[in-house]
Amino acid sequence: MSMRAKTNSVTSVVTDEHPTVLSVRQLDISVRTEAGILPLVQSLNFDLKRGETLAIAGESGSGKSLTSLAIMGLLPPPAVHVAGGQIIFDDFDLTKLPESKMQRLRGDRIAMIFQEPMTALNPVMRIGDQLTEAIRAHEPMSGRAARIRALEALKAVRLTEPERRLKQFPHELSGGMRQRVVIAMAIALRPDVMIADEPTTALDVTVQREVLDLLRILTTEMGMALILITHDMGVVAEMADRVLIMQKGQLVEEADVRTLFAAPQMPYTRKLLSSVPRMGKGRQSTVDTSMQPLISVRDLQVTYDLRGGILDRVQARVHAVEKINFDIFSGETFAVVGESGCGKSTVARALTGLVPHKGIIKFEGQPILRDRASQLANTRVMQMVFQDPMAALNGRMTVGDLVREPLVIHNIGTPQSRTDRAAELFERVGLGAEVLDRYPHEFSGGQRQRICIARALALNPKLIIADESVSALDVSVQATVLELLQELKAELNMSYLFISHDMAVVENFADRVAVMYLGQIVETGSSAQVFGNPQHQYTRRLIAAAPFPDPDRVFLPREDSEDDLRSPIMAKGQTPKRLKYCSIDEGHLVAI
Amino acid sequence: MAFVETAPVLLPLSVWQRLKKRKLALFGMTLIFLTLFGAICAPYLTPYGPNDQMFDGLTLQGAPMAPGAQFALGTDLLGRDLLTRILYGARTSLIIGLVANGVALIIGTFVGVTAGYFGGFWGSVLMRFTDLMMAFPALLLAICLAAIFQPSLWIVALVIATVNWVQTARVLYAETASLSEREFIAAERTLGASNIRILFRHILPHLTPTIIVWGTLGISTTVLLEATLSFLGVGVQPPTPSWGNIIFENQTYFQAAPWLVFFPGVAIVTLALAFNLVGDALRDVLDPTQRGRG
Questions:
Q1: Which one has a higher pLDDT value, A384 or B5?
Q2: Are β-strands A20-33 and A36-49 bridged in parallel, bridged antiparallel, or unpaired?
């Protein structure tokens, strides 16, 4: 199951003997706005053959998702519409098919998997009922027969205990299991074409690995054609037979996957591929760790009480962060990696005082107290940059006011000097001072993150906590923002606490790394030590699971994953076992 | 890396300039202005007094006069000129609509935002009290309060405010609670902003659309509640006219003299509509993400 099914499909499937199941001809998609009709996708052409996996890759705004919605006939009416061209499926032109006929095709012949499995499933319906409902909507059969079909589908997606799953609700399953259920719904009717729109973007990297493996097996087993929409070139390299690269609604390049990665023709493709961070053996750190650390964290613990019952007593406790220790040195990038729920963001929130915590946090040897004055002083040396810049900026204030805000709060300077400082910061992060009067929604995602960085810099902090700060950005924009952070580090001797789930980014950006799992650090060391010589089983799993932008990479058989549902929730009175560490090398600690 | 990021260019305009461009908002403002003008200049606009019972205001059979040349909107059962009473009534109704509604909004905003932002024990206490007020029959409470105090225009306004803040508090509580969880509030905390600053600079501006909508909706509600209280004898005391009590005095004669109910009704609806139009436009104009649209 873990062997690469694609290797043979590349040689055997994409030949002329295999009939084309779907062709897109001169497809134009437009949107009606006050400013007139704007084209979103322009004269797109491609063919999809039976059994083939076609990846449509591109950055946000490239029109890749719109193309898939157009095939499904699900473009958001009335503003967005197909303006011209044809989508030929089974002698029908899907763009001209009436909705009633389209409804019959949808799900039955062409199925779609969405990004977020929790929103794609109905939370108040049992898994079994959702599956049988979908099956019976297309094929007249008894409830019992549909149930058998549903069970087969769940078995096909390799869900454990499929009979029990039929009776469960979506919230009882883990994220990966949910996405399996969504895939089971899509394949239950044995469609000819399956469209997967960013099917693994919302999933943890180890779960992503499982879902990608599953999709690959299913396409070969069932001879389905798969259209894979993704921004992740690593996923493209692993999954696709053929690739379409799109940019701003236009097809930039079309090639089979090996040709594309080996010899990209167009400059945009080359740029896109060069922006992708690659995993190697880690980078050597140049930071002196013999000095006094800038920040030193001892026995940091964050727990949340889960209350319940009539008397609202504490029934269980979430041990989000369980007595962890680490130091960050001046001018250093210290990365915390781990999957969702491992407590990495809670560490950031505890440091900035957003959540109450136990344990000691020392700044340059001085413990940070919890009174308001110390907290205020703390904000001047430690600043945070959040994941989603749009959410982290107050949309009703101009960006100039937002960047001046920290200076006003700390009562620094005069209105004029604050404006000068804001302008200077804007220049520094690569935005002109003339945009100070605009509002956050008038900027692109990368520009907004630059504004957040400018705001964080306003108080001249010594440490910036970057909580998944580049995760929501397109890969090319991500590269430029990381470059900016790197420049600031060199210029201002800035330290970073860099929190991320992306192993490749961490490896290329961090000096030292800590891997977190269930609220504790399982392995820590320099980037070269952790990535070059990973010791803990979980670190190895994370590294092995990261998608790799090289179509020739051969996968090792996957180690059996641990129970998906292990959680940091403990009954009252119980505490998680504290991990003990052994030292592998100087500064390289591994939990035993 | 030469990826060029572009953003649309929009020129910032002052709120008034943008408001001016909306025809419906201008129409609404005109109506409000006309009502104000009518209320203030009533003595100069009409030859009659609001409480003058005129001999020629009734037919020989003692029935009210239909709208005509002498009495533009007709007369009521006591032979008083309806137009005059509506103009003077505008004074009462505007005071009730603005003061009662304004006080209700202030109480509701205070309770809702405090409970939503700080939460905890006192937040729960405030919201349980709000629920209690919601479950309590508002009219009964208003009658009790009005009976305790000497009825005057201002007391009636305050009584209406004490029963009308509840819905606003409920809605703003929910909205504040969800706003407090948003990331930009967390970002402000990490910058060291105090609670007062977060509340006034970051939470309240996001609540203005809701406050404006409830404020404009509340105007018609309060005007009608005043009418109900007048009808029950605990509102504005006759013979002082208000739009509400003109309707209630005359509603039993609806079939014989429909104009007596129709004209004050139109006045209430028009005023409510005018405030709604202005409120809607104000909401859009104050929202920076709506710039350059409509």
A1: A384
A2: antiparallel
Predicted confidence at residue A8, as pLDDT, reads 41
pTM of the model: 0.81
Nearest to A422 by CA among A455, A467, A453: A455
pLDDT(A535) > 80: yes
C-beta atoms surrounding A315 within 10 Å: 13
Alpha-carbon separation of residue A275 from A269, A474, A499, B101 (angstroms):
10, 10, 20, 58
* Burial class of residue A527 in the structure, from the number of CB atoms within 10 Å of its CB (0-12 exposed, 13-18 middle, 19+ buried): buried
Question: For residue A336, which phi and psi values (nearest 5 degrees)?
Answer: -115, 120
Q: How far is CA B109 from CA A439, B24, B180, in A?
A: 26, 28, 15
Cα distance between residue A146 and residue A142, in whole Å: 6
Other C-beta atoms within 10 Å of A142: how many?
10
CB-CB under 8 Å, A483 with B7: no
CA dist B25 and B18 (Å) reads: 10
* B21 contacts in chain A (CB < 8 Å): none
Q: Which residue of B has its CA nearest to A383?
A: B190
Task: List residues bridging with A54 in a β-sheet.
Answer: A227, A242
Angle at A287 between CA A286 and CA A291, to 5 degrees: 145
CB B283 within 8 A of CB B213: yes
Alpha helix positions (H), chain B: 15-20, 23-40, 42-45, 82-95, 101-118, 120-135, 138-148, 153-180, 183-191, 195-197, 204-231, 243-250, 259-286
Residue with tokens 């060069």: A274
Model pLDDT for residues A112-145, shown as the tens digit of each residue = 888 777 778 888 889 899 889 888 888 888 889 9
Query: For residue A464, what are the β-bridge partners?
Result: A383, A496
CA-based nearest residue to A295, from A319, A331, A321, A322: A331
Q: Which residues of B touch A470 (CB under 8 A)?
A: none
Confirm if A82 and A29 have CB atoms less than 8 A apart: yes
The CB density around residue A583, as the number of other CB atoms within 10 Å, is 10
pLDDT score recorded for residue A558: 56
CB A157 within 8 A of CB A180: yes
B192 with A410: Cβ contact below 8 A: yes
Contacts of B187 in chain A (CB under 8 A): 384, 386, 392-393, 452, 455
Q: Do B194 and A393 touch (CB under 8 A)?
A: no
Nearest-CB residue to A444 (from B5, B183, B201): B5
With a threshold of 0.90, tell me whether the complex ipTM lies above it. Answer: no
Q: Does A444 touch chain B (CB under 8 A)?
A: yes
User: Is residue A130 helix, strand or coil?
Assistant: helix
For residue range A61-74, what is the model confidence (pLDDT) as tens digits? 888 888 988 898 88
* Closest approach of A583 to chain B, Cα-based (Å): 35
Q: Which of A272, A396, A471, A477 to mutate to test the interface with B (most CBs of B within 10 A)?
A: A396
Q: In b/e form, how buried is each residue of A55-94, taking b as 16+ CB within 10 angstroms?
A: bbbbbebbbbbbbbbbbbbebeeeebbbbebbbbbeeeeb
pLDDT at A559 over 60: no
How distant is the Cα of A271 from the closest Cα of chain B, in angstroms? Answer: 8
Chain segment A394-431, per-residue pLDDT in tens:
988 999 999 999 999 999 989 999 999 999 999 999 88
Q: List, as ranges, residues 1-20 from B with C-beta within 8 Å of A.
A: 1, 3, 5-8, 10, 12
- Distances in Å between the Cα of A111 and the Cα atoms of A194, A225, A383 are 5, 11, 45
Encode pLDDT of B70-93 as tens digits.
777 878 777 788 888 889 988 888
- What is the structure's pLDDT at B2? 37
Q: For residue B15, which residues of chain A lie inside 8 Å, CB to CB? A: none
Enumerate residue ranges in chain B where pLDDT < 70. Answer: 1-14, 57, 290-294
pLDDT at A2 over 60: no
Q: What is the mean pLDDT of residues A347-355?
A: 89
